[in-house]
């Protein structure tokens, strides 16, 4: 079933979950046990990341196939950077054979370590959305949105305009990049609503685990963090008194509560494949009831 149908039918705020394919076969068993534990919170859907340029494509396919067979509503991420039409068509066929009816249509990032020229038919995620709508019209399509604009965007307006373009090309909903300031999320939603776009905008929530992991995330995604939170975590990390985990949990629970009170339809948790962490967050937010 398409995620947009689940979103229309939902009665209360939901949780959905993002996983990444484990790096090796040895980690698979633990991974599926983690997914199994997380089924207790009846996620609206589960998404699985995809290596840009098609690397590790088989792993994503194997994982989405297995999650679908576990009864989950599944969405495969799919990137178009460096992609060939034939490869995309095949991948979409495989998804349909596996009973996967949803794709997160992404551009992806070019490889960092090799010289790179931008060519081929898919320059932006909007091109992929248009292609999927033609090639597999029954697929549900989500696209990425950026509460804090994508690092390559010159302005907030440009970035939001390109998000709107992806919806106009046929996407059903927006799933956001992680962010640390709820105002950025609500501003993105308002911007879209003012332009007549009423599609669901699902906030992506990344649990912070440690000061080191926070710095790694910030270096990768271009999100901005409130200075006060950064300084508080830096100080707790320096004192090494065990406060970091508590501050991180309190911050995440507060972020989710403010999102839901402000009208977000639910939350998409970047699980980091960690079941305990996510179960604790969901419990503390009262979303397990
Ligand atoms: P686009 O929407 O194409 O945007 C990319 C940039 O181009 C933006 O700056 C945008 O403003 C600009 N732009 C768009 N259209 C135009 C235009 N017509 N003219 C000029 N500029 C334009 N990456 C992975 O490799 N695998 C994953 O599984 C994955 N999952 C993700 C999940 C989520 C929820 C998010 C938010 C990101 C994910 N990413 C993933 C990262 C994503 O691939 C990168 O952020 C990538 O740099 C941009 O992808 P996009 O789909 O937003 O691209």
Question: How would you characterize this protein structure?
Answer:
The chain is built from eleven helices and nine strands. With 289 residues, it is α/β, with parallel strands linked by helices. The protein has one domain: Alpha-Beta Barrel (TIM Barrel). A nine-stranded parallel sheet has the order 7-6-5-4-3-2-1-9-8, with helices on one face. Helix 2 links the parallel strand 1 (14-19) and strand 2. The protein is globular and about 55 Å long. The two termini are 24 Å apart. The model has no long low-confidence stretch (mean pLDDT 94). Bound molecules: flavin-adenine dinucleotide. Flavin-adenine dinucleotide is lined by residues 49-50, 52, 77, 79, 104, 106-109, 124-126, 144, 150, 152-153, 158-159, 162, 166, 175, 177, 204.
- Strands of the biggest beta sheet: in what spatial order? 7-6-5-4-3-2-1-9-8
User: What would you call the shape?
Assistant: globular
Q: Given this structure, which CATH class is correct?
A: Alpha Beta
- Indicate how many domains the architecture comprises: 1
Please tell me the CATH architecture by its name: Alpha-Beta Barrel
CATH topology: TIM Barrel
| Attached small molecules | flavin-adenine dinucleotide
* Category from helices, strands and their pairing: alpha/beta
Low-confidence stretches: none
Question: What helical percentage do the residues reach?
Answer: 40-55%
Could you tell me the number of beta strands?
9
Largest sheet: 9 strands, parallel
Number of helices, counting only DSSP H or I runs of 4 residues or more:
11
What's the average pLDDT? 94
Strand content: 5-15%
If you compute it from the alpha carbons, what radius of gyration comes out, rounded to the nearest whole angstrom?
A: 18 Å
State the separation between the terminal residues, measured CA to CA. 24 Å
What's the helix-strand series? HEHEHEHEHEHEHEEHHHEH
């Amino acid at each position: 079933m398409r995620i947009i149908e689940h979103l229309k039918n939902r009665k209360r705020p939901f949780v959905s979950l993002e996983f990444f394919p484990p790096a090796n076969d040895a980690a698979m068993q633990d991974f599926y046990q983690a997914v199994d534990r997380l089924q207790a919170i009846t996620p609206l859907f589960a998404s699985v990341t995809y290596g840009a340029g098609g690397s590790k494509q088989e792993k994503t396919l194997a994982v989405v196939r297995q999650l679908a067979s576990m009864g989950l509503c599944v969405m495969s991420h799919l990137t178009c950077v460096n992609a060939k039409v034939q490869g995309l068509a095949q991948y979409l066929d495989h998804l349909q054979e596996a009973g996967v009816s949803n794709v997160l249509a992404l551009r992806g990032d070019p490889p960092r370590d090799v010289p790179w020229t931008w060519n081929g038919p898919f320059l932006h995620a909007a091109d992929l959305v248009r292609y999927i709508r033609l090639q597999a019209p029954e697929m549900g399509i989500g696209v990425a949105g950026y509460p804090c604009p994508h690092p390559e965007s010159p302005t907030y307006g440009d970035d939001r305009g390109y998000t709107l373009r992806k919806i106009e090309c046929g996407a059903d909903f927006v799933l956001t990049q992680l962010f640390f300031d709820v105002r950025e999320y609500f501003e993105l939603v308002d911007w879209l609503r003012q332009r007549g776009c009423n599609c669901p905008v699902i906030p992506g929530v990344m649990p912070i685990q440690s000061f080191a992991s926070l710095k790694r995330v910030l270096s990768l995604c271009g999100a901005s963090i409130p200075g006060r939170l950064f300084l508080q975590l830096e100080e707790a990390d320096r004192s090494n008194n065990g406060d970091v985990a508590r501050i991180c949990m309190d911050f995440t629970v507060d972020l989710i509560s403010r999102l839901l009170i402000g009208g977000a339809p639910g939350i998409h948790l970047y699980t980091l494949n960690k079941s305990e962490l996510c179960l604790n967050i969901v419990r503390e937010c009262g979303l397990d009831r």
